[in-house]
User: Fold these one by one.
Assistant:
Number 1:
Amino acid sequence: MSRKKAVKGKSSSPTTTGSPAGKPNGKTAGTRSVVHTNGMVHPSRPPLSNSSEFYDIAFKVMLVGDSGVGKTCLLVRFKDGAFLAGSFISTVGIDFRNKVLNIDGVKVKLQIWDTAGQERFRSVTHAYYRDAHALLLLFDVTNKTSFDNIKAWLTEIHEYAQQDAVLMLLGNKADATQERVVKREDGERLAREFGVPYMETSAKNGLNVELAFTAVAKELKHRSMKEPNDPKFKLQDYVNKEMKSAGCAC
Ligand SMILES: Nc1nc2c(ncn2[C@@H]2O[C@H](COP(=O)(O)OP(=O)(O)OP(=O)(O)O)[C@@H](O)[C@H]2O)c(=O)[nH]1
Ligand SMILES: [Mg+2]
């Protein structure tokens, strides 16, 4: 298994992936072993430590959805375990954070791209869709317009992202029960209509945040490393099972 050090920090410059994301390059680098995956492919590197900076496979995940739905907060909750309360600072352009997850003994690095939801940045963010292995599409359960705009977002995703990119719909701000205007069943119905998994999250109290990213990482890892006889991994089934076992009443 190859091990590579994760790039740390934030950047607003475009990704520097050599081969098209999501496609194995099939190359072998001299005597070094190479992991053939659908994610980024890495030459072997001695596992110098058990540090979470080292990873086996890496994937790009994009957060998309209307401005104010909570994309940045979701990422900060996942990465730092904190909630950005107070005044809302809208993202300008695009930014990313890395997190390495241990998925069934495999270190999976997620490079998570946080996009600006504002219309004026749309042309900037479109350029990043093509390299995304997965997209988390968010709406805000307290904002009907953000829910109504999901169809338009799906059209954009189908136009700009890879056809086989993993997609998941998230109804965020599930903690805000008083202000809720989109019912859980409406989110589920829409997701079913478009054949995408659905779950509700809260960046504020952490509900299902870890699960959303872990589920995507599991799906990507499964797709890229699966053996011919492996049973198919079903993202929605996994999410439902995990929510049940956590006693989620959401
Ligand atoms: N109650 C509640 N508020 C949230 C939640 N997530 C985000 N917020 C609030 O919603 C506002 C917008 O959150 P952001 O994460 O900045 O929204 P965004 O989607 O990144 O917006 P853009 O960067 O403009 O695209 C902030 O005031 C957050 O505090 C949540 O889960 N629950
Ligand atoms: Mg933001």
Number 2:
Amino acid sequence: MWRRRLGAFLLRSPPSSSSTAASSCQHRRHHLLPREEPPALNRLARLFTSQAGSDGGNSQKPFIAFVLGGPGSGKGTQCTKIALDFGFAHLSAGDLLRHEIASGSEKGELIVDIIKEGRIVPSEITVELIRKAMEASNANKVLIDGFPRCEENRIAFERIVGREPDIVVFFDCPEDEMVKRLLGRNQGRVDDNIETIKKRLKVFESLNIPVIDYYSSRGKVRKINATGTADEIFEAVCKLFSSLRF
Ligand SMILES: Nc1ncnc2c1ncn2[C@@H]1O[C@H](COP(=O)(O)OP(=O)(O)OP(=O)(O)O)[C@@H](O)[C@H]1O
Ligand SMILES: O=c1ccn([C@@H]2O[C@H](COP(=O)(O)O)[C@@H](O)[C@H]2O)c(=O)[nH]1
Ligand SMILES: [Mg+2]
């Protein structure tokens, strides 16, 4: 459990200020494993779930949701809310890469140059970070936010982790809205400037959309209209997640 908490602390984005009780899911499902549930009830609940492990973790294969969408479509914002309301571990590929940069490693120096250019980090680096984070989280439900970015990423993940996602959530947002949000983000990100944003939008269209198309052809994509307020979008997200079996 401590590993799970430490992993979550290190790897999840800080909760957004909009993640309040008031904004939480109106369609909230009856969680089988809410965090605040007493341990005895948790154990009982686990007897009735197919995926939970002996410590609530992933001794069997976890439910994996890839969360995709253009830059600034609101992936991180919505994942924070989903993690809180539905008990998912939130692994953001971008945050993992930024964490590697912050560690001061040689790999980090390579990564920061790629991010400034809006390009895609080599698959073996990103997949290895995600694989380790999944292992550290020991979770039975995982959101992988902002990955895979291209077909090569997808193929590398499926080869190394040995799994396809159970679903792919696609936040569909118009470009002008994404640009407006990114320019207003104000979190000191090296890629939140108009030059990099334009490059990221091109990379999204040319490399990430084909991944979404691939998973669409496999019936895995759930498209969500990502316009409106974060809370309005979360209403649609809640409907989707409440309908899932995990
Ligand atoms: N529905 C919304 N309406 C207005 N602003 C939003 C909405 N959702 C998120 N934002 C804001 O837009 C910015 C980008 O959101 P967020 O970081 O969640 O996007 P993202 O898809 O994770 O972007 P990136 O791919 O760059 O990581 C943030 O400042 C966030 O607070
Ligand atoms: O799988 C990934 C995820 C991210 N990148 C690089 O990081 C930036 C920022 O990512 P966000 O998910 O938007 O935080 C992205 O533009 C890429 O340069 C990546 O290469 N691979
Ligand atoms: Mg993000």
